[in-house]
Amino acid sequence: MISVVVPAFNEEEVIEAFFKELIKYLPRIDKNYEIIFVDDGSKDNTLNILKEIKEKDKNVRIFSFRKNLGKSEALTTGFRKAKGDYVLTIDADLQDRPDQIENLIKKSKEGWDLVSGWRKNRKDSFAKNISSKFFNFISSFFWGLKVNDLNCGLKLYKAEAAKSLNLYGGMHRFIPLLLFHEGFSVTEVPVVHDKRKLGKSKYSFSKVFTEIPDMFTMLFLSRYSKRPLHFFAPIGGILFAAGAIILAYLTALRLQGYTIGQRPLLFLGMLLVISGLQVIFTGFLADLILHKSSKDEDDSFLLKYSSE
Fold first, then answer.
1. Own/partner pairs for 283-289, CB < 8 Å, 24+ apart?
2. SS3 per residue for the chain
3. Bridge partners of 155?
4. Contact indicator for 4, 36 with CB cutoff of 8 Å
5. From its phi and psi, is residue 94 left (phi > 0), alpha (psi between -120 and 50) or beta?
6. What is the pLDDT of residues 241-265, one digit of tens each?
7. What does the pLDDT look like over 202-221, one tens digit per residue?
8. Is the pTM of this model over 0.85?
9. Do 84 and 159 touch, CB atoms closer than 8 A?
10. In this predicted model, what pLDDT tens digit does every residue of 94-106 receive, in sequence order?
11. CA dist 210 → 38, 40, 134, 169, 171 (Å)
């Protein structure tokens, strides 16, 4: 069985046309299917149109948020509700074409946990294309995952991989990285991408400035979530060392008879030393909290006997 998860936000102009296009190809791929629409708090007529679609097709399921929470939350809801052995995600804007799904299915049969679409000839704005190239380069540089298109909406997952994801904020943009970090196999295949003909894009160039913090969050979670002291200690150590060098220099001057009490360099040295110690102890406390919570989550070592 295949579950198709479709996040939708204010797509009243295109949602019905999208469904008709999707239903042309889906039964050919797997007669046992379900389509999960997740309405992300649409303010237009999207939800009512989806209800009409559901009345015509028993394989359609609808979940609707009271307010707009974001694509990450919509996808996570769809993943949790999916019943299929495979989970397919596709956007409702008809830019990712349903006739490309078979390409992902064929690749998945080779054993991949995630097959992501690669919009090789992407029909999007200049801002979208530039930001995409930037983040694809960063992913390759920091994580060693060489993909050409991190954020293509057309993806095919094994159920285990999809249900392992707990997305929030802008984390949906980095799904291949999240799964790759967790040990799942990730690949991509070229897919045809069309210009948006109906509805309006929800992307603006200002979103680039929210994607950058998300990228740093990804970097921290993937490399240091289990060992935060390894992240904070080098930063704190550099600040402390710089401050210590400055104070040592000023101490040498004072021993030579110079006045240092009014020098700005003295205050800078003190600030660096204090800041360095604070950063180090922040990492130390984070390590203690993480260690304690890990022991609370897994207390099996306390058990003398268990029948499980």
1. 283/228, 283/229, 283/230, 283/231, 283/232, 283/233, 283/236, 284/229, 284/232, 286/228, 286/229, 286/232, 287/227, 287/228, 287/229
2. CEEEEEEECCCCCCHHHHHHHHHHHHHHHCCCEEEEEEECCCCCCHHHHHHHHHHHCCCEEEEECCCCCCHHHHHHHHHHHCCCCEEEECCCCCCECHHHHHHHHHHHCCCCCEEEEEECCCCCCHHHHHHHHHHHHHHHHHHCCCCCCCCCCCEEEEHHHHHCCCCCCCHHHHHHHHHHHCCCCEEEEEECECCCCCCCCCCCHHHHHHHHHHHHHHHHHHHHCCCCHHHHHHHHHHHHHHHHHHHHHHHHHHHCCCCCCCCHHHHHHHHHHHHHHHHHHHHHHHHHHHHHHHHHHCCHHHCCCCCC
3. 89, 116
4. yes
5. left
6. 999 999 999 999 989 888 888 889 9
7. 555 555 556 666 667 766 76
8. no
9. yes
10. 888 888 999 999 9
11. 23, 19, 14, 9, 11
Tokens found for residue 257: 């008879």
Token pair 């993943």 is found at 79
